[in-house]
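Progress report, Aim 2. The chain analyzed during this reporting quarter is listed below.
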Amino acid sequence: MFGLFLDSAYNRCLGYSLSRGAGLQALLMGHPLTVSEDSTIFTEMPGLAGLLIFSYSQEGADLAIRVRDQKIPVISMDAVLDDSIPAVLNACEDCFRRLTDLLIESGHQRIAYLGGPTSFAQSRLRLRAFRETMAARGRPVDESLVVHTEAWLASNALQNLTTCFDAGKDFDAIVCANDGLAVNFIAW
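Predicted structure tokens for the chain:
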């Protein structure tokens, strides 16, 4: 039996899409898969052979450590939960460097940044890549155009962007930290 923990704060569309893929793989390999947003079921699950964790929270980190301490393999997906837990991360920094370079090469001068929560490591890496690329290309970052969300929801960030517009802060391009923020910005 394998487990897949999806933190309730995780992007559910992406999480459940991934769980369907993981479930199919487990089925093809002849192993059942349990998917849950309830972390407590995994700490006492009989026959648990391994656990994938999609979480950015302390709850996910605590679960990873408890299961690891039971000598059950644990892998964190998309977040470093603890230095002792293996993690599979995306190469977001390179993508954000390339995106920022593309906007600069296209002639954009004042580039805004719409980012995720600063408590999330991947969000900080994406912002760092944006800042480093701007600096390497001799472009100043206007801090009033760097806006973050409280969670991976666009409503808070879009309100902050409205404040930028109302204050006369002009920008001619925007880098969004994920596709959900970009879609919401376009719809805005």
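The domain at 2-88 is CATH 3.40.50.2300 (Rossmann fold). The chain has a mean pLDDT of 82. These observations will guide the mutagenesis work planned for the next reporting period.
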